[in-house]
Amino acid sequence: MAPTTHLTTAALLLALLSSLATRPVAADELVDLVRPTPGISTRDHIEKRLQLGADVLSVGIGGLSLGLLELRSDVAGRRARIGIGGGDASVLRLRLDSNVFMVGDRAEVRSRIDFSINGHRFDLELPDITLVPRGLDGGSQIQIPIIQQRF
Hints:
Blueprint: H1 3-20, H2 27-34, H3 42-64, E1 69-74, E2 79-88, E3 92-103, E4 106-117, E5 120-125, E6 129-133, E7 140-143
Antiparallel strand pairs: 1-2, 2-3, 3-4, 4-5, 4-6, 6-7
Helix pairs in contact: 1-2, 1-3
């Protein structure tokens, strides 16, 4: 993609995210967010703006779901954490936590289930899942190991 395409995509993303904000964002503010800062590379500028958008989205999702859905991302590090579930550990709690790491063109997903009932906690680590693109058709292949050892 050309740098102008990245900036246009970033501008659209920021406009969408600004609609979720608690106060309206003026057009001048959006232009300032999209305009590259002197001395910063275009890539760093885009990563910074995408991280800002991801942070706004994370706060919005957490607030709308009352803490039952958690999304944290690190755009520069190409990783994300997704958590679904909740409850009180002294009564009943069920939570699925996943860490997603982008390595090259594939995504590695490490997940675990936390289950607590009456103060007793059980942790179940699920096998790692790797998502690999199949080709130009846009599909992906899911790879799950049959036997996996963790030390």
